[in-house]
Amino acid sequence: MRVGVFTALFAKLSLDEVIQKIKPLGIQTVELGTGNYPGDPHIKLDWLNSPGKLKEFKQKLDDEGIAISALSCHGNALHPNKKFAQSSDETNRKTILLAEKLGVKTVIDFSGCPGDSDNAKFPSWSPTPWPPDYLDLLKWQWEKKAIPWWKKRAKFAEDHGVRIAIEMHPGFLVYNPETMLRLRAEAGPAVGCNFDPSHMFWQGIDPCAAVRALGEAVFHCHAKDTKIYSVNSTVNGVLDTKPYSDEKHRSFLFRTVGYGHDADFWCDLVSTLQMVGYDDVLSIEHEDSLMSIEEGFEKAARFLGQIAIKEKLKEMWWA
């Protein structure tokens, strides 16, 4: 298992500065954002029309011994705002084409979430089956919007030798293993998941059990933790709409790995991923509002580096 990093957290640094920062920590794998929600200046979609620039970019990474684990374009191509949806759609399409040219096999995105009708202005998402309007809405969203779009996009990706890893996230139609596997069953094997344990924790999902259920559908993995603060969650539950900056009053916060769950959990997660055939990258994503980017990244890199060493030693011992 390799440790990588989602370079969107270093959006203020040049690519050369990012490389200088990650290599001393033993990281030689990057996940790059191409647009939509994650801003990342290190790669540009318009390079599709600049073969020379693309070659120069790839050569720089090759010379530094840096591999790309995935291109990320987290958006919402099902958004009822047609301009927003078209932008997300086009970014996803171009990202697939860029991945093909770079020899990158995985593109990461959200499943998206439509509104309540063709005339809606905002996405409509609900985690409850009652009142019954919500079930009718959910049926319409899946059958009329999500399934048709994803079938076409999965075929497009497959035709270009690329697979799409959906990040399960509340607020979108795919937010847990059940909904992930439903979309995969409809769209085909070119659709799988970008597994982020932080989004599982606060929903009450055991990440290791989730990995077992997902099996070969795990295409990529983020390394991000979650801390549940029982002083708040036992009063208000975990459905929390307070800003992430209101740390003191929130029921949960995204944390740097090791600050929500200890090494025993992360060792178990790595082992479980290997059991289902995933032995690729743990891509550090920093969203810990209690730590600076520098501190959070370095702590995560060192923590995961130790986990990787432990797993390697275990393999050698068994061998």
Set down the secondary structure blueprint.
Layout: E1 2-6, H1 15-22, E2 29-33, H2 51-64, E3 67-72, H3 82-102, E4 106-109, H4 133-159, E5 163-167, H5 177-187, E6 191-195, H6 197-201, H7 207-214, E7 218-223, E8 225-228, H8 230-236, E9 252-255, H9 263-275, E10 281-284, H10 293-318
Parallel strand pairs: 1-2, 1-10, 2-3, 3-4, 4-5, 5-6, 6-7, 7-10
Antiparallel strand pairs: 8-9
Helix pairs in contact: 7-9, 9-10
Descriptive notes:
It is a single chain. With about 325 residues, this protein is α/β, with parallel strands linked by helices. The protein has a single domain, classed as TIM Barrel (Alpha-Beta Barrel), CATH 3.20.20. Helices cover about 45% and strands about 15% of the residues. The protein has ten helices and ten strands. The strands form two sheets. It has an eight-stranded parallel β-barrel, surrounded by four helices. The protein has a two-stranded antiparallel sheet with strand order 8-9. It is globular.
Features:
319 residues; alpha/beta; TIM Barrel; eight-stranded parallel beta barrel; two-stranded antiparallel ribbon; 10 strands; 15% strand
Short précis:
With 319 residues, the protein is α/β, with parallel strands linked by helices. 44% of the residues lie in helices and 15% in strands. The protein is globular and about 55 Å long.
